[in-house]
Design goal:
The chain is mainly α. The protein is built from 13 helices and 2 strands, in the order αααααααααααβααβ. The protein starts with 12 loop residues before the first helix and ends with a strand.
C-alpha cells in the first residue's frame, strides 16, 4: 500500500495546486473528495489485494477529484460524460462506499488515454529543460508528453527506452498521484541512521579534545568507543567502519596527526 512516501520533489506544493485546481484563480473541481475518501482511494488504487474493478474505480475517483471539467475527465479516463456524471452524482448522494459498490457495472476502457492539462504539460517541459533529477524522472516526463501527443507506445518505447509495461505503470501512477507524483522520484528514506553525524561528530570532537587515557600516548579506536558509550550507550555496538567514518568527519585521522593537535591522533 502507499504510504506518505513521496518527497518534496515527489509532491511539490506548487505543482499540486496546479494539478488539483486549488489555486486562487483555478476553477472548482469536478469532484471534490474528502481527505478520508482520497486516502482510502489511494490505498485501494495500489493494493494488490483489491479487486481489479474496485481498483479501477478508486483510480477513477482520484482522477475525477483532480480535474475541473466533465469534458476533460471524459478525455482523461476514456469514459463517456454520462457515465462520469452518474458516478459523480452517486458519490454526492451516497458516498464513496456506494460508488465502490457500482464498480462491477462500470465499463472499463481497454486503454486509458493521456490528456495533459496546460499546467501539466508545462511542468513536464520544465523538467526536460532543467535536466534536474534522475534519468528516470526525465524519461517519465518525456514519455508523458509523447503520450499526450498521441504517439504509439512502440514509438515512445524506442525514444525513451521504456517498455510497454513501464508505460502502462506510468499511466496508472498518473491516475493515482497526478502528473507530478508520477514524474518525480518517490522518497526512499532507507534505513534510519543509528549514529547520526549531527550528534556523534561534535561528541567525538569534544572527547578527543581531552588528553587520551593515562595508559596511552594517543587515542585508539577501542578507547574512543568505550568513552563514547558513556555518553551514548548505543556507541558500544558501533562497528569499526562506522567509527572510522565519524572520526574522519570530525577532522581526525588514523595513524597521523589531525588538524592542529598531534597528540590527539587516533590509531587502530
Amino acid at each position: 500500500m502507499k504510504t506518505s512516501t513521496h518527497s518534496s520533489s515527489f509532491h511539490g506544493t506548487e505543482q499540486d495546486g496546479l494539478e488539483s485546481g486549488t489555486g486562487a484563480d483555478s476553477p472548482p473541481l469536478f469532484l471534490s473528495l474528502s481527505s478520508y475518501d482520497r486516502d482510502l482511494s489511494e490505498r485501494l488504487a495500489v493494493s494488490s489485494k483489491t479487486a481489479p474493478a474496485v481498483r479501477h474505480m478508486a483510480r477513477l475517483l482520484l482522477e475525477m477529484g483532480r480535474l475541473s471539467s466533465l469534458e476533460h475527465a471524459a478525455e482523461r479516463t476514456g469514459l463517456s460524460c454520462q457515465v462520469l456524471a452518474e458516478v459523480r452524482q452517486t458519490y454526492l448522494w451516497g458516498g464513496i462506499q456506494e460508488v465502490l459498490s457500482m464498480s462491477q457495472q462500470l465499463p472499463m476502457p481497454v486503454t486509458t488515454p493521456v490528456r495533459l492539462t496546460a499546467a501539466e504539460r508545462a511542468f513536464c517541459r520544465q523538467v526536460l529543460e532543467s535536466c534536474e533529477g534522475s534519468k528516470g524522472r526525465l524519461r517519465r516526463a518525456k514519455a508523458l508528453l509523447l503520450l499526450d501527443e498521441g504517439k504509439s507506445k512502440d514509438s515512445i518505447a524506442s525514444e525513451t527506452q521504456a517498455c510497454s509495461r513501464t508505460l502502462k505503470r506510468l499511466v496508472e501512477r498518473c491516475q493515482i498521484y497526478g502528473v507530478t507524483g508520477a514524474v518525480n522520484d518517490a522518497e526512499r528514506p532507507g534505513r534510519p541512521q543509528c549514529y547520526p553525524k549531527s550528534e556523534f561528530v561534535p561528541l567525538i570532537r569534544e572527547v578527543m579534545g581531552h588528553e587520551p587515557p593515562t595508559t596511552r600516548f594517543r587515542w585508539t579506536a577501542t578507547d574512543l568507543r568505550r568513552v563514547l558509550a558513556h555518553h551514548r550507550p548505543e556507541a558500544a555496538r558501533m562497528s569499526m567502519p562506522t567509527l572510522r567514518a565519524l572520526v574522519t568527519a570530525a577532522g581526525f585521522g588514523y595513524g597521523y596527526a589531525p588538524k592542529g593537535a598531534a597528540s590527539m591522533s587516533l590509531s587502530v
